[in-house]
Amino acid sequence: METSPRAWGKMEPGYIQLHNRGLLQERAREAKEILRSCQMCPRLCKVDRTAGQKGFCRTGERAVVSSYNPHFGEEAPLVGNGGSGTIFFTHCNLLCIFCQNYEISHQGLGDEVSPQVLARMMVQLQNWGCHNINFVTPSHVVSQILEALPLAVELGLKVPLVYNTGGYDRVETLRLLEGVVDIYMPDIKFLDSSVAERFCRAPDYPDVVKSAVREMHRQVGDLVLDSRGDSDKGAPSETPGHAPWPVTEQRSHGIPGRGNFQEHLRERDGAVEALRGSSLTSGPLPEDIHPGIRASP
Q: How many CA atoms lie within 13 A of 72 on its CB side?
């Protein structure tokens, strides 16, 4: 088995091609401009993050990272033999009250990093043998990722990129990532606006996530697996194991891609009372699972 980074697909990642044409740097500049009156995500806070102002995500001009390491708990097609190279970004544009990473998303555990440091993290993960770079909770730091990528390419980065998101993404922002991201992995948390309002103050979440996943799928298509069951391109999606029933009908809601049930629910502090008796506290029954969805063990 291979333990060193390899070119997972037959083609080099698209971000390298964009970099060689000067387009990656252009995307980074465009994204940086968005931060000046931030509309990076659907919250549309319009604060000047380049001046240190912070909106809902509590992140200024620089990204905050809680940890980076090879991760073997991701979906099997991403892990391979060397693990998925996860970079966990601190803060979030959703702030679900049941978040399993509460200390990171709500309490801000992590350190600010410069573009140079973020680039070196990516390359270090590659050098450790990771098969991809997995950006976890990236929706609020797309600009910072794009700014660091050209530096990482110059340092030798060449593995696929994974965009591991809560699904609250603007289509306009995702279009900046076309040809950059190889694998999109959205969590589809709710398809009921009242539930989304109750648990993350985002009643527009159902409409946003549907549009976002369609855009992701348009860019990269279905998840493509090689003979080993590994993947370097495509758009799977996760639905939390405790999600309300409508999420299990992924295809009937016009959401493309391969589905995968995951448990991401954490009863913590004030979330316990809010969760008690809600539709989030019981998982789907086997007969509830739509044929287009694969339930993971």
A: 3
- What structural domains does the chain harbor? 14-294 (3.20.20.70)
CA distance 171 to 156: 30
- The neighbouring-strand residues paired with 133 are 85, 161
User: Scanning the structure block, which residue is given the tokens 């009908």?
Assistant: 249
Q: Beta strand pairing status for 133-136 and 84-89? A: parallel
E strands, 166-286, where?
A: 183-186, 224-225, 231-233, 237-240, 259-262
> Which candidate, 93, 16, 98, 95, places its Cα nearest to that of 59?
93
Can you tell me the distance from the alpha carbon of 218 to that of 116, in angstroms, rounded to the nearest whole number?
Answer: 31
Residues 6+ apart with CB under 8 A from 72: 79, 83, 84
Q: Which two structure tokens, joined as six digits, stand for 9?
A: 């697909």
Q: Is the pTM of this model over 0.85?
A: no
State how far the Cα of 137 lies from the Cα of 213, in Å rounded to an integer: 15
The pLDDT of residue 114: 98
pLDDT at 223: 72
